[in-house]
Amino acid sequence: MLHVRQMIIIGSGPAGYTAAIYAARANMKPLLIASSVEAGGELMKTTEVENYPGFPEGIQGPDLMLKMQEQAERFGTEVILDDVVSLDLTGAVKTVTLGNGDVHEALTVIFATGSAYRKLGLEDEERLSGQGVSWCATCDGFFFRKKTIAVVGGGDSAMEEATFLTKFADKVYLIHRSDSFRASKVMVDRAEANPKIEFLFNKRVEHIYGDGLVSGVGLIDTVDGSETTINLSGLFIAIGADPRTHLVHGQLELTSAGTIAVSGRTSVTNLPGVFAAGDVIDPHYRQAVTAAASGTVAALDAEDYLAALPADVLASASPVAVSA
Amino acid sequence: MSNAKEVTDATFVDDVLNSSDTIMVDFWAEWCGPCKAVSPILDAIAAEHSDKIKIVKLNVDDNPEMAMKYQITSIPAMKVFRGGEVVKTVIGAKPKPALEADLAEFLA
After folding, report:
1. Which of B34, B52, B84, B91 has a CA positioned 20 to 30 A from the CA of residue A57?
2. Beta carbons of A100 and A81 less than 8 angstroms apart
């Protein structure tokens, strides 16, 4: 018979690890499924994080995530580097199946899978992906030394990537489909002050050209409809992300924004014992620190749920450990 | 960290192009997070299929010549060589089952 745990956390960004820190400190011995190649989440692909409190000098995204993992493990979180392939959340005992075939069971699940990069949806995007089309400036910027490239998007990530890429590229176009930005003022100001960055406002990418490698893009002006072509060798796409919910379709209710629906300021989903946290419930703020806070809420909600369960149900799960 | 043999600009012809084995070259760099994430998965695949495929690593920082020759613009980039020719390219870190599916023809 399977060993039923008190809690399984799915996701290893700030929400997942913070939920794990709280749950582990409450002796719930959480199991955290971190993913095989995306462990640590989106911050693994960023460089300097300047707005996470407690690090006045800033901290590298991957370092921050490693510290969160260490902190979660210090209190007894078990971390598995694999991917969830299916989930059954409907019963009192939840079942989680991993890529290696292992099945784990728990009385509560915290779902904190974050979001996945949005694509432009163009015909040649997939074909030229890895051939000049990229979603990761920190991974691929190196290959565009002294080249002309472009970043598409108008949020903080687009500004950050454009600024970062000027370390390598001679010229970085920032292509944005309107003339106002979602990005914070400090990030826009920094990009605007950079002589290598040229803003192209009110432009939508219509075509990506290139045989083996990207050679240019075709743009349409969103105001007057005119078309232009720019020669470039790299296109970095930073147009936002969509909540990663495919594992729970048909089980958890979603909002019109595509995020998992939770009750008010809680992490409580439509299914008892299932809680959601981080970017997967947040269509708006999506910061490392708001995700971390959201993870805390989920751990506390799950703790309340477990405390209210009949004693015999709780006893069937892993006992609350008493340190020797 | 990884068990895979490192190849370089200098050894590429001997180690990869002139080899009679099926060899996959993992183009990687120290600063690439996804490269580090996929590295143990490649080790596991190499260990499980050592009779079918050899997996070696090329650091693109230290070996710009080969990175340029094979037009690497995104890493991790994994290229399978047979008889000196690239017969398959896989780009980006992927979970083990997905990589095994991409490489199925070489692992069978």
Report:
1. B34
2. no
